[in-house]
Design brief:
With 331 residues, the protein is an alpha/beta fold. It folds into two domains: 151 residues, Rossmann fold, CATH 3.40.50; 171 residues, Rossmann fold. It is built from twelve helices and twelve strands. The protein is elongated and about 65 Å long. The longest helix is centred in the N-terminal third of the chain and has 18 residues. The protein starts with a strand and ends with a helix. Helices cover 40% and strands 16% of the residues. Strand 7, helix 6 and strand 8 form a beta-alpha-beta unit. Helix 6 packs parallel to helix 7 and helix 9 crosses helix 11.
């Protein structure tokens, strides 16, 4: 089977899946080239791009679009020539979905039931075409290594307003966690589109006089090493697809709490979710009050969840089966 792969966003969630597909099928990656015509460059490049995309679609039995975004919108504007399978993570639903001709998509994979529900509510033509396959992580890269409790809290993410790091810092201050010996670690560097947010976070640390209790680590290149210094990992977003960093933290041996963004209940048990800052504070202190054995039991339960639901090998195999199922109709 000839399988085409089109991806125009980060490869962060796809490397293992791509290697699995490539190991069992003839695989081609869509890599459009630009022309070098000096005159009418934009118009010619647009036509050249459409021509390349059209040839790419016609030369494969099925094309998998990692991210239901720009490439998928362009592909579904062309005559249908092959099977089309796409995976929608989160942002595409709000920025690209209305530009996609869903009639030409054979299967849409979503990473959570919450996002599937949103998609089906907005686009009735997707009825019967969707299924949920969660995100996944490589468990071999994140061995279970729980540490004794040291009052170390952490959040690891892109520093954008959606992640609500600023609000987490205010909660940390309001509930006197610093005075009780807690440290809040922030992993993530300045985002090019939200430089003001990064600067605001830095200013807030100073304004709260918490330089010794809130630590900014910048871009984290070795997340396993970073997790080893965290006792409780916190996700404070208001919207996610199905966030990867909590999975990695849980696998590594961190306890994990999350704001109850839609779909968070597919990631964590209800006892690990909070809506208000007061609930977050209570859950932090409740976990701290447990015995070391009880804390370890809680961490083991979270590791088991990751093993059962978010193993990238199992996730990849499920995605490959869907691609093959659609591709078989076009061979």
């Amino acid at each position: 089977m000839k399988i085409g792969i089109a991806i125009n966003d980060t490869w962060s969630f796809f490397n293992e899946i791509y290697n699995l597909i490539k190991s069992s099928h003839q695989t081609t990656l869509f890599s459009p080239q630009k022309s070098n015509f000096p005159l009418f460059n934009t118009r010619i490049n647009r036509k050249y791009y459409r021509s390349q995309l059209n040839r790419f679609l016609s030369s494969n039995d099925v094309v998998f679009f990692e991210w239901a975004g720009e490439y998928l919108a362009h592909a579904t504007a062309l005559p249908k020539q092959c099977g089309i399978v796409a995976r929608l993570h989160r942002y595409e639903l709000y920025q690209w979905a209305e530009h996609i001709n869903w009639e030409k998509v054979d299967r849409l994979i979503l990473v959570s039931q919450a996002k599937e529900g949103e998609a089906l509510t907005s686009f009735q033509e997707l009825n019967g075409k969707t299924l949920v396959i969660s995100e996944g992580i490589d468990l071999q890269k994140f061995p279970f290594s729980p540490q004794p409790f040291r009052k170390q809290l952490g959040i690891l993410c892109h520093l954008t307003p959606r992640k609500r790091v600023y609000e987490l810092m205010i909660a940390f201050s309001e509930y006197n966690l610093a005075k009780d010996g807690y440290i809040l670690h922030i992993g993530g560097g300045e985002h090019p589109k939200f430089k003001d947010y990064y600067q605001s976070i830095k200013a807030l640390i100073s304004n709260l006089d918490l330089e010794n209790s809130i630590k900014m680590h910048g871009h984290v290149t070795n997340s396993l090493e970073w997790f080893a210094n965290i006792d409780i990992f916190i996700s404070n977003s208001y919207s996610e697809g199905l966030q990867i960093s909590p999975m990695e933290a849980m696998a590594s041996g961190c306890y994990c709490l999350s704001h109850a963004w839609p779909g968070s209940n597919e990631l964590l048990p209800a006892d690990n979710l909070f809506l208000t800052n007061a609930q977050l504070n209570t859950k932090i202190r409740s976990f701290a009050a447990l015995s070391e054995t009880e804390q370890l039991d809680q961490k083991k339960k979270l590791r088991t969840i990751v093993e059962n639901k978010f193993d990238i090998q199992i996730v990849g195999e499920k995605i490959l089966r869907e691609i093959e199922s659609v591709g078989n109709k076009f061979v």
